Amino acid sequence: MSLTTRGERFLAAIVVLLALGLLFVDAFFLAASLTALALLVYDMLDARSTTQRGGASVRFSPVKFQATLARGDSASFKATLTADRRVALDISETPWIEVEPSNFEPGDWPVLLTGSSSFTGQYSTKNIHASVTSRYGFFSTTIKPELFVGVRVYPRFLKTTLAIAEALLKSGAGMGDENETELIGPGLEYAETRQYQPGDSLRRIDWKATARFSSLMVKQFYWDIGGSVNLVYLIEAPGPRTHDELATAFLDIILSTTSSGTPVTVAALDRGRTIAQFSGRGHLVLASALSLVLEKSGVSLDEVYSLLDVVPASQERKALLLSGRVKLVELLERARKVNAAQTRSPSQLFAEVSAFEDSRSFVVLSSLVSHSPHLPDMIESPRARGCDVLLAYPQKPWEDATDLEDAYMMSVSQKKLVKFAESNGCALTWLPLRPSESIIPLTQSARVANLTNR
Questions:
Q1: Which of 61, 158, 322, 345 is the most interior residue, by most CB within 10 Å?
Q2: What does DSSP assign to residue 181?
Q3: For residues 352 and 230, what is the distance between their CA atoms, to the nearest angstrom?
């Protein structure tokens, strides 16, 4: 229990009245000071009574909330707060929870609790504190009303995993979508104009739209798709958040290229060692990519299916996934054996691939902060053969750092590798990919690359 600002001022007024009463021997000042003191004592007793009653003075209904969601998403819970005093909720000890509103007058009030986190894991708390103000507002006391909030946060790539699982089962059932998707990226055909976002090229500013909307706008174009995509996936990452961003981008690109019918050749490296190589354009590529990510992330298929009740999906989609679970396990097991087959060195593989005229585009996914001896070669070798190289990397990998020194070293490492990539003529983009780019095949002809780099 403590004095509020109002209580401190009231106490100061009591002291002044008492001093004036004693100084001038004035009965009025003395009586006023004693009356005010009695009021202060009464309010203090009221605050103490509130502390003793605890949760009875502030109540939530219901008192338990639980949710499962993917990293970066949020879950909202509606509750009713009943209070007989003014209340301010304190959630400073639980940064993964937001409360709206946080201040309440006496009565019954609706309250919205939102749980979310940028990191995977199990979150739960009973430590929601309520600062209750006494009847006249001179004192405040802190109590813990009965309330439990639990949120389990899964890696974000699991949402794409469900989409890939659906695509695998549909392709096996002859229900695959054969239509190619028009995708946003460097090209010559105008697609749309949208608001500027950090990282956009200033060359693409739409000055007419900027003047019309009084806000910086940029043009977007459809990708000039041709040939195949060669994808280098450097798995090593400084922490779970960065690993999740890389895995999500990897699966998004695989799903995008296979959906558009674009052939893809994949080399996955972990700490300088090639652990998987596969190529094609069908369901085996999807299964190989999914099997690789699940294995390296230590995630089981059971955990993937647990998101069925979380991710919005039609009854038809849920029925397809549930009925095809056994078949999906067989596909992933076959893909795992393919991934485990003997592989060539990445330098040898991509030297052979880049020799073909229809295979001139390379995409490199890397955290840029973990040790990867092949990264410079993955950039220099294709560029030396005239191939286009796009380097995609997390914007803030240092959020996985254990301390400030570690974060600083990550930042320095990233800047050096970005400068190296730029000096070799690579295109660069941040992860996570924006919604319009989340399914880009990341393929382009040398002609389009040269136009966009002028």
A1: 158
A2: P
A3: 11
* pLDDT tens digits along 330-389: 888 887 776 665 455 655 555 555 554 445 678 888 888 766 666 787 787 777 777 788
Distance, in Å, from the CA atom of 382 to the CA atom of 194, rounded to the nearest integer, reads 32
Give pTM, 2 decimals. 0.64
- Amino acid letter, residue 262: T
Cα separation, 408 vs 399, in Å, equals 11
Q: Are 405 and 440 in contact (CB under 8 A)?
A: no
DSSP-derived letter for residue 434 is P
Q: Which residue has the higher pLDDT, 137 or 313?
A: 137
DSSP for 149-182 reads EEEEEE-THHHHHHHHHHHHHHHHTT----PPPP
Six-digit token string for 226: 């041709």
Tell me the chain's radius of gyration from C-alpha atoms.
30
Per CATH, domain 56-154 is 3.10.20.310: no
For the record, the structure tokens of 37 come out as: 């003191």
Say if residue 432 is preceded by a cis peptide, omega within 30 of 0. Answer: yes
Residues 6+ apart with CB under 8 A from 414: 368, 369, 393, 397
Which residues are within 8 A (CB) of 294 and not within 5 positions of it... i.e. 6 or more apart? 161, 300, 301, 304, 332
Provide the total of helices (H) and of strands (E) in the chain, helices listed first.
13, 20
Distances (CA, A) of 419 to 61, 68, 103, 426: 55, 40, 49, 10
Residue tagged 């103000």 (tokens): 133
Q: How far apart are CA 99 and CA 117, in angstroms?
A: 14
Q: How confident is the model at residue 59 (pLDDT cuts 50, 70, 90)?
A: confident
d(CA 192, CA 179): 21
Percent of the chain with pLDDT over 70: 80
Closest Cα partner for 430 from 195, 224, 198, 185? 198
Q: 265: which DSSP letter?
A: E
Beta strand ranges found along 84-225 (DSSP E): 87-90, 97-100, 103-104, 107-116, 121-125, 129-133, 139-143, 148-154, 184-195, 217-222
